[in-house]
Amino acid sequence: MLPLGQFDRPPTPGVRVRLYLPPEALLQQAWRGYGWPLGGLLSGALCGYVLAAGAGVGVDSGTAVMAALGTWLGIRRSKRGFDPLLRAQVLDA
After folding, report:
1. d(Cα 21, Cα 37) in Å, to the nearest integer?
2. Residue 59 lies in a domain
3. Which of 8, 26, 78, 89 has minimal CB crowding within 10 Å?
């Protein structure tokens, strides 16, 4: 959804707009979108393996379950506090 408050004048349908996202904000959003889920996957898989091996049960199922849980938690964490710093400008009249 476009931040309508960022436009110098309200756009109408069919009008071209220019959106600008600072490089720092893009890096932060990339970390949120890819880093947290990947970190959750890896840490969940590691914890699942260690817990399953320590409990003496099948490490494959423990690793898979905890990897899925860690990925889910990482995705949930990545969605919190999303506030893009978009700059918007209407190009056509």
Report:
1. 23
2. yes
3. 8
Neighbours of 62 (CB within 10 A): 20
Q: Is residue 70 a part of any domain in this protein?
A: yes
User: Is 29 among the domain residues?
Assistant: no
Which amino acid is it at 81?
G
Instruction: Tell which residue, 74, 48, 42, has the closest CA to residue 61.
Output: 48
Domain holding 79, by residue range, is 35-93
In a 3-state reduction of DSSP, which class is residue 44?
helix
> Total structural domains in the chain?
1
- Whether 25 has a pLDDT exceeding 90, the answer reads no
Under 8 Å between Cβ of 55 and 44: no
| Residue 28 or 92, more confident | 28
